[in-house]
Design a protein that fits this description.
By secondary structure, the chain is α+β, with helices and mostly antiparallel strands. Helices cover 18% and strands 49% of the residues. The protein contains 2 helices and 10 strands. The strands form 2 sheets. The protein has a 5-stranded antiparallel β-sheet, with no helix packed on it. A 5-stranded antiparallel β-sheet has the order 6-5-8-3-10, with no helix packed on it. β5 (80-85) and β6 (91-94) form a beta hairpin. The longest helix is centred in the first third of the chain and has 20 residues, at 2-21.
Length: 136
């Protein structure tokens, strides 16, 4: 019986971890971008959660047009980024600057500086939906 409990616990843990990691796999596939997940919590709005991560871009690296199933709040920790929100003029932000991206709005980011650039991204998103939806 104890053997089966260990197997069930291990399987449950693996499924739980894969559910947490799955929304972030798109970032892991892009060379020159490193993502560090900090926290993920349910919020007081039913069906929504907050996810917070820092994302580091090597010089010249861009993450293409994509959207999220909720809002994204960006705080630039280091370096210089150019953000392009679909239908708007590009904006250039440096360390200490902030940006709000509305739910479902396509956008992209590029490190336009000579050194690594890092952003702190906080997402307020619908639970159970894919965090990153790439634009075809």
């Amino acid at each position: 019986m104890e053997k089966y409990r260990k197997i069930i616990f291990s399987a449950t843990l693996a499924i739980g971890l894969s559910a947490f990691i799955a929304p972030f796999t798109t970032f892991a596939q892009k060379t020159g971008i490193t993502r560090t997940n900090h926290q993920r919590h349910d919020i007081s709005v039913p069906g929504y959660e907050t996810i917070q991560a820092s994302i580091a871009f090597e010089p010249g690296v861009q993450f293409g047009m994509h959207s999220h199933p909720g809002e994204e709040v960006i705080y630039v920790l280091k370096g210089t980024f150019e953000y392009q929100i679909e239908g708007e003029k590009p904006v250039r932000l440096k360390a200490g600057d902030v940006l709000f991206i509305p739910a479902g709005k396509n956008h992209q980011a590029k490190n336009v500086g000579k050194n690594k650039a890092v952003e702190l991204a906080t997402y307020i998103v619908e639970k159970g939906k894919t965090l990153v939806v790439m634009k075809p």
